[in-house]
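Good morning C.,

I know you're traveling, so I'll keep this short. The sequence:
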Amino acid sequence: MTGGPLTKPGGEDRRVACEPPLTPGGRVAPMASLLNRILTLLGRTASKAVSDALAQKPPTPSGLSEGTAAGSAEAVRPKQRAQASSSRPSSSPRPAPSHSQRSESSTTSSQGAGVYDVASLGLPAFSYSPDPDGDADPGEVVWTWVPFEEDPAQGKDRPVLVLARHEARLVVAQMTSKDHDRDAAQEARWGRFWHDVGTGSWDRQGRPSEVRLDRLLLVEPAAVRREGATMDREVFDGVIAALRRQHA
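The tokens, ready to paste straight into the viewer:
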């Protein structure tokens, strides 16, 4: 019987499957044997495709997978960039030294006044020798040009107490009629310290005065504008004692 088309009673065609393959002996080949041949052919084809694909890829370093090697290379690049960046000299400006770090010069300005550097010169040899001869002497309050801290090229006339002589110049302490007892803590934070000396004829309005302890000045005698008054010996000695404590 052949596998030709058959016709059903109603005239509808029905096709049957082709005859199964035969073995050399004329027997029908088992289905398992046919599947084995197909699987063998597919396996050989897949193995050849994998081998061809691997042969086209560059070899990776021993002990590293492709993903590990790529990740390591990416990790090295940022590290190298960071090392190169850190080796460059910094172009940012250095912070300016604070007031306490600056060493003020003991030289006088063009106005005949400057800062007396206690740190390098030490305290001067104090003396009390007022003399109403028209010249400025230790123990007297006089007026002279005092440079500003923030800009030594600028300043104004202020009363000062003459404390001593240093070579041909006068060592003086700045005075003020402002009451710094009210802001003593704030002044101390800025490194400014004051000592009360009370009232005297150097202030026409009779206001209490204070002498600054942390900053002494050098003044040329010719820079003194006018002589003010003589401070009492007891008050003067109190200023000297406060200066010694301040700079001990």
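Safe travels,
E.
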